[in-house]
């Protein structure tokens, strides 16, 4: 049966055995405690200042089922930046406020206030998955502050709103692949955008259930599945904070409090990492340009949905080159 109906049994047994018997959370605690971590109005974030003292301010936002851990391997590669990596509300060390409507715009407003409090009036933004959506609305709502936008995924609810007849043949071919992926892979989104509370009880009660549910996404959406050690660190962060349910509420809030960016005029770089095990399609540049002011477009030979984890050097290099070109006026 393999992975055709969900997480493969042998793979799960191996991961859970590693988590229970070999994984060293204390080593991860030491690694995390070496970072500069803070909280501000309930938001947990990591801050790394450029060694030169003149770094370009940059806020990076993760997605689901991820955490701020996604950017740990990128931090040493971003020495030209003052980097801020927050945890989304409801993930890990950032509690989710007990209200509805916590969508991309709600979070982006918190991020803008955070950057302002840190003394950054002009800054760059980057992200992946939900982080792409949050960063998009930072650029839409605060164009005077966001100097550039770097994203590696296109959020499914922030795609071009035009009739299919207007698309090119290449765009229609991409959409056919993407819609076929939706038919077999998007069941998680349907339940998380309607009944996240119900599925959350089981995931918060069973480490094996959590590993199966989250692990399947990391396996299927990646090119090379991240190492067991990283996966177990991510699982542990969700488990000890009991935040899988609150993280899934992102789907509910963004479905029932939808947003349309219209057009994002901020200079944008898009890194194409389209090598998922379950292929979702490679978006043509023309398709993404219907929503974003694309100034840099890079198609990478490796890496899937979790590019900051799978290919940290490639993402960091692309991001650095983009903001360097912006600052030099190219």
Broad CATH class: Alpha Beta
Number of helices: 13
* Percent of sequence in beta strands: 15-25%
Shape, principal axes of CA atoms = globular
Task: Walk me through the topology.
Elements lengths: L8 H13 L3 H9 L3 E4 L2 E6 L7 E6 L19 E6 L17 H14 L5 E5 L2 H12 L4 E6 L17 H17 L1 H6 L3 H10 L1 H14 L7 H14 L2 H13 L7 E9 L12 H4 L3 E8 L7 H4 L1 H17 L2
Parallel strand pairs: 3-4, 3-5, 5-6, 6-7, 7-8
Antiparallel strand pairs: 1-2, 2-4
Helix pairs in contact: 3-4, 7-8, 7-10, 8-9
Characterize the structure shown:
The structure is a single chain. The chain is of the alpha/beta class and 330 residues long. It has a single domain (9-328), classed as Alpha/Beta hydrolase fold, catalytic domain (Rossmann fold, 3-Layer(aba) Sandwich). Helices cover 45% and strands 15% of the residues. Strands 1-2-4-3-5-6-7-8 form an 8-stranded mixed sheet. Helix 7 (196-205) runs antiparallel to helix 10 (244-256) and helix 8 (207-220) packs across helix 9 (228-241). 42% of the residues are buried. The model has no long low-confidence stretch (mean pLDDT 97).
């Amino acid at each position: 049966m393999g992975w055709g109906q969900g997480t493969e049994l042998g793979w799960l047994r191996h991961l859970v055995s590693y988590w229970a018997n070999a994984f060293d959370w204390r080593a991860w605690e030491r690694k995390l405690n070496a970072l500069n971590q803070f909280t501000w109005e309930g938001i947990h974030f990591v801050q790394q200042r450029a060694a030169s003292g003149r770094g370009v301010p940059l806020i990076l936002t993760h997605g689901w089922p991820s955490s701020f851990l996604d950017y740990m391997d990128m931090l040493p590669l971003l020495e030209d930046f003052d980097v801020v990596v927050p945890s989304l509300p409801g993930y890990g060390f950032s509690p989710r406020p007990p209200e509805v409507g916590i969508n991309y715009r709600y979070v982006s407003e918190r991020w803008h206030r955070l950057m302002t409090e840190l003394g950054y009036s002009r800054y760059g933004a980057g992200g992946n998955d939900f982080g792409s959506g949050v960063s998009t609305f930072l650029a839409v709502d605060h164009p005077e502050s966001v100097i550039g936008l770097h994203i590696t995924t296109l959020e499914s609810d922030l795609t071009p709103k035009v009739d299919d007849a207007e698309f090119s043949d290449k765009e229609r071919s991409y959409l056919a692949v993407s819609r076929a992926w939706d038919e077999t892979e998007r069941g998680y989104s349907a339940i998380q955008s309607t009944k996240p509370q119900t599925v959350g009880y089981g995931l918060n009660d069973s480490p094996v259930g959590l590993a199966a549910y989250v692990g399947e996404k990391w396996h299927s959406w990646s090119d090379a599945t991240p190492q067991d050690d990283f996966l177990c660190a991510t699982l542990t962060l969700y488990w000890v904070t009991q935040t899988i349910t609150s993280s899934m509420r992102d789907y509910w809030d963004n479905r029932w409090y939808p947003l349309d960016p219209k057009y994002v005029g901020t200079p944008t770089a898009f890194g194409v990492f389209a090598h998922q095990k379950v292929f979702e399609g490679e978006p043509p540049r023309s398709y993404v340009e219907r929503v974003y002011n694309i100034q840099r477009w890079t198609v990478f030979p490796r890496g899937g949905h979790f590019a900051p984890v799978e290919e940290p050097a490639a993402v960091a290099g692309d991001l650095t080159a983009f903001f360097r070109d912006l600052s030099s006026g190219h």
